[in-house]
Amino acid sequence: MKKRLFSLLCLLGAVSGLFAGDTAYLFSYFINDSRDGLHLAYSLDGLTWTPLNHGKSFLIPTVGKNRLMRDPSICQAPDGTFHMVWTSSWTDRIIGYASSPDLIHWSEQRSIPVMMHEPAAHNCWAPELFYDEPSQTYYIFWATTIPGRHKEVPVIESEKGLNHRIYYVTTKDFNTFSETKLFFNPDFSVIDAAIVRDPVMKDLIMVVKNENSLPAEKNLRITRTTRIEDGFPTTVSPSITGDYWCEGPAPLFVDDVLYVYFDKYRNHQYGAVCSRDHGKTWEDVSDRVSFPKGIRHGTAFTVEKAVLDKLLRIHNFNPLVPDNIADPSLSKFGDTYYLYGTTDIDKGLSQAGTPVVWKSKDFVNWSFDGSHIVGFDWHKGHEYVNAKGEKKTGYFRYWAPGRVVEKNGEYYLYTTFVKPDENARTYVLKSDRPEGPFLFAGRNSISSHSLDGFDQSCIAPDIDGEPFVDDDGTAYLFWRRRMAARMTDDWQHLTGDTIVMSTARQGYSEGPVMFKRKGIYYYIYTLRGNQNYVNAYMMSRQSPLSGFEKPEGNDIFLFSSIANNVWGPGHGNVFYNEETDDYIFVYLEYGDGGTTRQVYANRMEFNEDGTIKTLVPDEKGVGYLAVSQEQRENKALKASFSASSVRSPRTSKVEIETQPNRPLADKTSLVKVERTHIYHPGNAGDQSNGTRWMAETNDDHPWLMVDLGEAMQVTECQFAFVHPAEGHAWHLEKSNDGTNWQPCAEVKEVKACSPHVATVGDKVRYLRLHIDKGAAGLWEWKIY
């Protein structure tokens, strides 16, 4: 535990003290159609706003008719908790709610039924939060149309039936709420109310949008009050914005300057006005503000510097490695972590990629060099005749390696080999090194021209062999369809009876895992598959093969999280890290379906009685388990990228089961979701293993170029290519004007490794990578 604390302090020390001031400013907003959820940006001066989390969402919406997260409004409580409300649908009579201690980890989302008592209500738009310190009360207010309820105003044809007023509820704990009441009822249609307290005048300023359309107003006005419980005067100021349509005001005091940011929605721009005399006169400063691309209606608020420091440090550590991998298992020998898995190449189950072993010393920076299995040509087709007498072509495939275990200096690998004729079994291999090369047990070498002894190394008649070594050294093997048996003392054969593990749930099952914790044996088995993979477990205090019982509570401990954008967490493995006393579950994530999967990892937690707490999978992952092996600044994070071509986006549409305890036939628990992978060049510089640049399939000379903005000293580049186990050849050029290029580095012959490293050792502004052979894509380009 001391080592873990020391490592953590080293990491925090390296990034603490990012800013000298005590406060910073945050902006919550949405982009596009708001289905990808909450986005955050920060500023130190109120003028320049920079997206956080590389522009990615912090929270995916899960409530409401349309599961939107429009107009997110965030308010920080005195105890530091952040509360958020949002528009969940164009036509809902509810609003969404969630809370967070740090804006990173969020509570379960809930619906607040603020207008359910009004069956004629059209909507609940743009809810805003305001905390009234004198009464220690939260006010939630929003715009709703109730036909015939208020004085009608002339409207254009497209807005027929809409006549909004501002309503509100109060709460002290977000569990109980006051009766819904009318909050602001001027003589015009009004939406998008936002309140800020003047730090000098001590009164409250409310900014609202005059939504009248005939004649068109579509501008912002202000009104003031000294006590919120007295309401706001309905006589408002003249427009504080210019000759353009705008909405979504977000007021913010930066020292004594009051800014009001807003969406010029017809111009697809964000603007701002400011007042230096506490709201008496206003100046348009739209030409001086800078916002993230695509920003839409949100709120601006002040936070302590420590909050921003933590947000700047966050990083999504899932997927774990930059490659398409499935069925992962994890072992640690010495100071190195070893990750074994199935290499996916998006060709279905009929063909798999070259198997490799990924290594890391910090659990974040991973690499491999060559394959640990020799003697196979994974791309060579072999003809065979099936049971129907039909001629077919098949390939050798390597699948689902179990956790590598060590005995007397030898490392044992239990893995599935599939023969070209689809015969799939588990085999045992050995090596004197955990990274291989591994040879079939009992053999000293293997020739690419001969597979003699291949069948003699078969240990189980089916796939997904997973070993377990008990405290007394007795070894067991578990495999698909709940099968299990004890192994002989040499760990190369099975002995005794083969049993069927007793489980509470029936149905097809694969990817078994056995581990032991505090005298309890845990048997994990998968159910269902694809985007609806779930992991269930049984517990025993007797032995690895007997005495298993269904745990109290939820025996399905891992399943999809729509909110966290993790689908179908499937076939995985439990790793125990002795130094940190952590149990970590590594598993496959659905990806785009088929064989496009990636490896994720999350910590497991246990209750006092030993039962496993529900593991909510996320993209945050585990992070560093040791001091980072890379302390240099990655210049790619601030660079711009362009490419010879960009592959068209790929969209996956699925139905995900949100309540896995129900039968899959119960359609009420199925939710339709979709995700779109975009392959733009900037993905190569975002420090994410889950995004990538891909060239068009017909691009015969693919290249990716980086512009550092100015000439600077570059020591080396690291390239994490797409499908790296299949190998790449490439050459790199450098330039200071983007026109005249010089050769910089190259790999002429196809080499299978990740990352590829190019030595630069020069002051350059532009670098251009040409992919000569291999998949035309890049997960990451790191520049040091």
From TrEMBL:
Which stretches make up the F5/8 type C domain?
Answer: 646-741
One MF term in the entry's GO annotations:
hydrolase activity, hydrolyzing O-glycosyl compounds
State the signal peptide span: 1-20
Name the domain of life this protein comes from.
Bacteria
> Which InterPro entries does the UniProt record give?
FA58C, Galactose-bd-like_sf, GH43_arabinanases, Glyco_hydro_43, Glyco_hydro_beta-prop_sf
Pathway info: Glycan metabolism; L-arabinan degradation
| CDD domains tied to this protein | GH43_Bt3655-like
GO terms for biological process? carbohydrate metabolic process
The protein's UniProt keywords, in alphabetical order, are: Glycosidase, Hydrolase, Signal
Signal is among the record's keywords = yes
Hey, which family's this protein in?
Belongs to the glycosyl hydrolase 43 family.
The protein here is known as F5/8 type C domain-containing protein
